[in-house]
Amino acid sequence: MHGTLPAPIHTARDPVREHGFVVAGAALVADCSGALYWPAERLLVVSDLHLEKGSSFGARRVFLPPYDTAATLARLAAVVARYQPACVVALGDSFHDGGGPARLAPSDRDTLAALQHGRDWIWIAGNHDPDRPENVGGVAMDVLRRGPLTFRHEPGLQAVAGEIAGHLHPVGRISRRGRVVSRRCFVTDGTRLVAPAFGAYAGGLNIRDRAFARVFPTLGFTAHLMGADRLYAIPAARCV
């Protein structure tokens, strides 16, 4: 349902599209697109693109409009143009299945090549795409460690300070004046962070689900909900 979110928390640089927080001492910027930017390293992170999900479902005779890859890459292109990162980290489940890279349309392949031009591009392995993606450029890794941060797809079972993960597709829900507002979100306790799914067809999981309790044992974390053009910092205990 539609509803009204509380007032957002902003950065000084752009009071509309982004706000900042610190994870394990690293100052990060969360964009309302669902991308995460680390200014000190000029590093942009996106999680769970699930490219070619539409064609994957189509092969099983579950027909979805086949435009998810183009839509996701267009959104990603806008974010890359905005931040001009030196490095992009795709945080796993970049393709919905192992055959996704081979099914890319020529136009989408060209878009991806243009996004990679002049910058490092790292594909982190996910559970949907554990093997190195072929013929799509970039470098494949299981885990990337840089400074105080560790980038991986699935949150580890043991708490690791500075862990930036995806996989869980976090969604925060709040009740406002009898209505429930549900939004994709970043979730962090200042030590670890789980990024929202970026893909057009990616679903979501309520942050009050027990899967998040394995990452954040208490409700002492914050959900940064993505509005249409701004973010909202909501204590997890206020989410429903």
Brief overview:
With 240 residues, the chain is of the alpha/beta class. It has five helices and 16 strands.
Q: Taking all residues together, what is the mean pLDDT? A: 90
**Rg over C-alpha atoms, rounded to the nearest angstrom:** 17 Å
Q: Quick one: how many beta strands?
A: 16
Number of self-contained structural domains: 1
**Low-confidence sequence ranges:** 1-13
Number of H- or I-type helical stretches: 5
Fraction of helical residues: 10-25%
N-to-C span: 14 Å
CATH class: Alpha Beta
Strand coverage percent? 25-35%
- What's the order of the H and E elements? EEEEHHEHHEEEEEEEEEHEE
Which architecture does the CATH hierarchy give at level 2?
4-Layer Sandwich
For the sheet with most strands, the description reads: 9 strands, mixed
The CATH topology corresponds to: Purple Acid Phosphatase, chain A, domain 2
Q: Outline, from the CA principal axes?
A: globular
Structural class: alpha/beta
